[in-house]
Design a protein that fits this description.
Layout lengths: L1 E5 L2 E4 L4 E8 L6 E8 L6 E7 L4 E3 L7 E6 L4 E6 L8 E9 L4 E4 L3 E6 L1
Parallel strand pairs: 2-11
Antiparallel strand pairs: 1-3, 3-8, 4-5, 4-9, 5-6, 7-8, 9-10, 9-11
């Protein structure tokens, strides 16, 4: 399984970005797919994920600002980020967890920099 992430970049505070993550190699019936992030000197943390049943989970610090969505036909997950803050600056990693096999897959990170 390969996860290809894209969409990072530099944006001013208050602006928006959309991240994309496309999965290839296999399809799974039951899974969670989403985004983690890691800022310099900090641990990697969950940002948002969407589950195969369509339910979503968000970290408290992004609720109301970020929206995760999925296109199952394209095996792609999107993270729409709005009202970005300087503290959102981090490397964002796409993640796939397969429930049946309990495996974790990671995409390459994409850097999001929010300037204040």
């Amino acid at each position: 399984v390969q996860l290809q992430a894209s969409g990072g970049g530099l944006v001013q505070a208050g602006g928006s970005l959309r991240l994309s993550c496309a999965a290839s190699g296999r399809t799974f019936r039951s899974y969670s797919m989403g985004w983690f992030r890691q800022a310099p000197g900090k641990e990697r943390e969950l940002v948002a994920r969407i589950n195969s049943d369509g339910s979503t989970n968000y970290a408290d610090f992004v609720k109301g600002r970020f929206t995760i969505s999925g296109d199952s036909a394209q095996n792609t997950v999107y993270l729409q980020m709005s009202s970005l803050r300087s503290e959102d600056t981090a490397v964002y990693y796409c993640h796939l967890n397969t429930w049946a096999t309990r495996k974790n897959y990671w995409g390459q990170g994409t850097l999001v920099t929010v300037s204040s």
